[in-house]
Every structure is written in C-alpha cells, then in structure tokens.
C-alpha cells in the first residue's frame, strides 16, 4: 500500500469491496465462449429487458444529451407522486436505489453512530455504513430471514439507522406485514427505518406490505424502490426514496445535483406508465420460480423459499459447482460473502435459460 493510501481512515481501508455478478463479457473472454451462448442468472435482472415504451423514451432522450439533466427530476417526481399518492416533496431520486441507501447513511450517520441490519442482508447496508465511519451492528438471522425481535433489541441510544430488506436479497425471505409494522412502531424516534423494497413488484397483492400507507404514521421511515428489477432498467441506474418531506429535504442536500441522468429520467417515466410490462414480468417470474424450484427438488437440493426473482439453493461444494457451471457458460452468484458458503443464488430467467441452468447444474453435480 502506498504511503498516501495508508493515510485513508482505517474504516475506509477495511471495507470489503462489493462483489457483483460476473459480466458476460468477462466469462466469454476467460473461457473462450461465444457471449451469445452464455446465460447470466446472477444479478436479478429482468429477462424480458425493458418496456418498449421506455425504449422509445430513451431513444428520444438521446437527442438532448448535450444538456444537463433536470436536477429535480420534476417530470419523474410528478409521475411517481401520482402513482404512489405521496406529495412530490416526499420523494428523493437516486442513481439506483443504492444511491438512496447511501444518501440515508450520509444524511444520518456520523462516526460513532450505529446502524443495525441483519446477517445475510444486502451487502450495501454495511458498505454505506462503513463508508461514513459508523458502526455496523449485525443481528443474527432467524431461518435466513430478519429476526425483528432481535433487531429491536439491538437498537441503542446510538442507533441512527436500521436497514430492513423486504424481501431480502440474497435469501428471498419476506417479513409478515403485521410483524413488520409492529417492529417499525417500536423503533424509537431517534432511529430511522430504511425499508428496502427493491423486489416489491414481484409480490402478490396479498403479500405486499402496502408500506407507503405507513408514511403518514411514521415520520422516521424511508422506503426505497428501484427501476432496476421489475422495470428492467438496471443499467441506467435509477431508484427513489419515499419518506417525510423533512427527511427528503436533508437527503436532497447531500445528493449530487445531477445524480439521475436524463435518459434514466425519461425511461423511468415511460416505464411507470407500462403496467402491462410489469404484469408480464411478474407472471414470467412466477412460472420460472416454479420451474426452477421443481428442478432443484428433482435434483434433491434444498433451497430457501423465495418471494423475489431469484432463489438460493444449497450445494455442499458451492465453489466447485459454480466453476463447473461457468465452464458450461452459466453464470450464477456464489454468496459465501453473505456468510452462506454452501449456497448459490440463481436469478429467474426465461423458460429456456432456466432449463439450460437446470441441465448444466445436473451435470455440474454429477462430476
Ligand atoms: C438489486 C437490489 C437493489 C437495487 O439496487 P439499484 O441500485 O436500484 O440497482 C436494492 N436493494 C436490494 C436488496 C437489491 O437486491
């Protein structure tokens, strides 16, 4: 490490880099494979791509790319405000919802403050906590899901933020609505609840928490949503937070003035209007989830029942199986860095992609 690098704060030097899904181009290069034959089921992306409306809006927006974007995302703000029935001042837009998670951390966490989150929860919670020098308090999971009672008990006078992923990634676990609401009601006023609902669109109406209705009751709640998953805009980077006007105001002060690019704003507006696309996405996901979980059962593998667009399954030699899948052009996600060394996470793809994955897995297991 160079002399100057050694002078970075120790909490920065000790951050473990985020490990994403392997890009198709990397695997093609490493294994000499035809990229068009590679199946990537590693980053919970939408196998249907994007709504045709969003595609058209993006092409139109390209013509204006020499201009700075609208720093207040006014049109997108209006569209989200109408769709979710919240005031425009209650919204914060981000460069992906990861940006929202980071803005919450930067607005509320100082060194020596604490943030509480669950074991096996989304890796970005610890990243954004450490980046501001705050202390991450990891609460042991219960049946791979969040143990809300233990999380409540972990909140101290120093806790400024508690992160809750519902459904959680990489476990796919879902909290009961009543339990979640009771938990939020118990969180003290000096602690912000960041409720990450990146996969909300995949839930059935019966399973949805309808948490946006809770904003009127709890002024220490931030809900984060994304266009990266069901809306198929992962590469554009756009997400948003719904909260109280005063929290939104603070988060807006720490965000970069042009954090959401103009193509993303245009695509997000158009994709919000295409409910049919989201409906098709959900239907495909439901069918693919049945296909993959049945295939896992047929192979005699255990998996964690999932409410999202991926499922994590257990294989004794996860690293070896992963290597043998890669050799066959199948990319899934090893999750050893989530303290789940015996699990692999597979995203639900198209019918044909799921079938290729299952065939490759069968072969990878028999070696
Ligand atoms: C994928 C995912 C997100 C979305 O991140 P973006 O920055 O919006 O792409 C957020 N939270 C969780 C738990 C996720 O799995």
Topology diagram in text:
Elements: H1 3-6, H2 10-13, H3 24-31, E1 39-40, H4 52-62, H5 74-84, E2 91-94, H6 97-108, E3 114-118, H7 124-131, E4 135-139, H8 148-154, E5 159-165, H9 177-186, E6 192-196, E7 221-226, E8 239-242, H10 245-254, H11 262-272, H12 275-298, E9 310-314, H13 318-327, E10 330-331, E11 333-334, E12 343-347, H14 351-366
Parallel strand pairs: 1-10, 3-4, 3-5, 5-6, 6-7
Antiparallel strand pairs: 2-8, 7-8, 9-12, 11-12
Helix pairs in contact: 4-11, 5-11, 6-7, 6-10, 12-14, 13-14
Summarize the structure.
The protein has 367 residues and is of the alpha/beta class. It is built from 14 helices and 12 strands.
What can you see in these coordinates?
- The protein has two domains: 20-49 and 276-365, Aspartate Aminotransferase, domain 1, CATH 3.90.1150.10; 52-273, Aspartate Aminotransferase, domain 2 (3-Layer(aba) Sandwich), CATH 3.40.640.
- It contains 14 helices and twelve strands.
- With 367 residues, it is an alpha/beta fold.
- It has helices at residues 3-6, 10-13, 24-31, 52-62, 74-84, 97-108, 124-131, 148-154, 177-186, 245-254, 262-272, 275-298, 318-327, 351-366, and strands spanning 39-40, 91-94, 114-118, 135-139, 159-165, 192-196, 221-226, 239-242, 310-314, 330-331, 333-334, 343-347.
- It starts with a helix and ends with a helix.
- Strands 2-8-7-6-5-3-4 form a seven-stranded mixed β-sheet, with helices on both faces. It has a three-stranded antiparallel β-sheet with strand order 9-12-11, covered by helices on one side. Strands 1-10 form a two-stranded parallel ribbon.
- Helix 4 runs antiparallel to helix 11 (262-272), helix 6 runs parallel beside helix 7 and helix 12 packs parallel to helix 14 (351-366).
- The mean pLDDT is 97.
- Bound molecules: pyridoxal-5'-phosphate (PLP).
- Pyridoxal-5'-phosphate (PLP) is lined by residues 44, 96-98, 122, 165, 169, 196, 198, 226, 228-229, 234, 239.
